[in-house]
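Note to self: the last two entries modelled the partners one at a time, which told us nothing about the interface. This time every component goes in together.
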Amino acid sequence: MTFRYDAAVAGRGVDVAFEVAAGETLALLGPNGAGKSTVLDVAAGLLRPDSGRVELAGRALTVAGAGGRDVLVPPHDRQVSLLAQEPLLFPHLSVLDNVAFGPRSRGMGRSASRDVARRWLAEVGIEDLAARRPGEISGGQAQRAAVARALAADPRLLLLDEPMAALDVAVTPALRQTLRRVLADRTVLLVTHDALDALLLADRVAVIEGGRIVDHGETSRVLSRPRSRFTAQLAGLNMLAGTWDDGAVRTATGLRIEGTPGDPAPAAGADVVAVFPPGAVSVFLEPPGGSPRNALPVTVTHLEPHGGQVRVRTTELSADVTPQAAAELDLAPGASACFVVKAAEIAVHAL
Amino acid sequence: MAAPSRVGVPSWIFVPAVAGAGFVLLPLAALVLRTPWARFLDLLASPASTEALLLSLRTSATSTLLCLLFGVPMALVLARTRFRGQGVLRSLVLLPLVLPPVVGGIALLYTFGRRGLLGETFEVLGVQVAFSTTAVVLAQTFVALPFLVVSLEGALRTAGQRYEVVAATLGARPTTVFRRVTLPLVLPGLTSGAVLAFARALGEFGATITFAGSLQGVTRTLPLEIYLRRETDAPAAVALSLVLVAVAVLVIGFARQGRSSL
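The predicted structure of the combined assembly is written out below.
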């Protein structure tokens, strides 16, 4: 079920190529206007590219400008489902019939498709809302129903368009956990500008900027060592993987990092990742004594200007300091230092 | 609940506004005042009146069905597709909205009449359209169709295509999308469009008398009957007029309900 995409839309200045392997989730990360929606439109068959080829599991979905006959398989015949920012549940149908819509459209009988729908509603944890109308449930519940609806259609490729962007921040962690569970082993293209979505949901990340892919690779590499301006600004996150142990993340190298776990809190011994932005890091030469904060001994590898500040890099982490501070500390490649971060600034996510 | 405060309108504006409202309401009041209430039911029960009323209801219902049959696809094509000359076509299709009905009647006569464009074709088939009940239905459909197309096209544009896109990516064929998503979503707009079309058909006069004539029981609809009675039996004309006013009030009520539920 490999998805291969290589298409150019001249009118929108978007020309990208990438591949999503079967069972893999690729995050297409980029700022607004970078061309993410254009890619989704082409993948879903809503937009004809000027040239290129889109292929799913060996079947050509879109072929344009190749000299031969153009192909544009209509959206309903692609087995590609789209989950948008907004749930867009059909307002005149019950939640159950919304989820049953896909199976029913593919020719399944009424009661059989409702059985499928019930299973998916249970999978996303809202089986008790089956009889409600979309207007009678909350935004987070509606997005869960939309996830169930997209998956019930049994797509070979699932397109997610910023699925968390329109939701209240209070409900996003739980939905993210649900997505992690139901998206495992599925072929998924996730479009987002949130590095955290990419970190928690994607196996690989492709960064799109100005209609081109400027960086791609494994999620942790792209996010911790960004090669593009956008990822450096919006992502550039520090990430330390480890296990959850008594309110702290214990890393493989023996560090203990206190952080703030998301909801639900990870189980003891669970694999987790501690995430914090470079701006949350203070740099000292010696560990400050008697401080309740996390102090991480590091060796500076290089320094670079970063938006009026200096980004101090080590092999694993980054910190942003003012030029004055960098001068006072006399930081230089090879120097020993101590990165200090408050526990409140460190978000801990279950992996 | 407190009313939202807004910038007031100049006070002098109420004078022409009230005068205008009076201009619309006064004739209705006059009609009610002149209605011979004592003989009201007798006047309505005369054979000519009942025949005209039933003919009007029958033909208007038929032409509303025809409007739905042709108007829904027309509105869908206008709202959901793009092609060269679409703007011009839309204007031409909506022409009957502004065309004097008499002109419409003449045009229909030269299309479906015995000497008309399609008249000979119909003649071969043994059908004579002009001056028949069919002609009444055609005249009413001709003038009412744009009402349905306009209000449905507006509803379709307001609804947008986002739900239709989702439905398609879930594997629904275009016909399924139309039946299970598009139509239910625009149902209020469709209802009010159909009600408006019915009202326009019911009141149709000019095109009908030109194209279908005025034959009692065959083509003499209620508006025609009212016009003819006015000379010979004014109280009956007033009573019949009041029936049409009542229908109009009902129609506006329906159409408003359709709007507000959008």
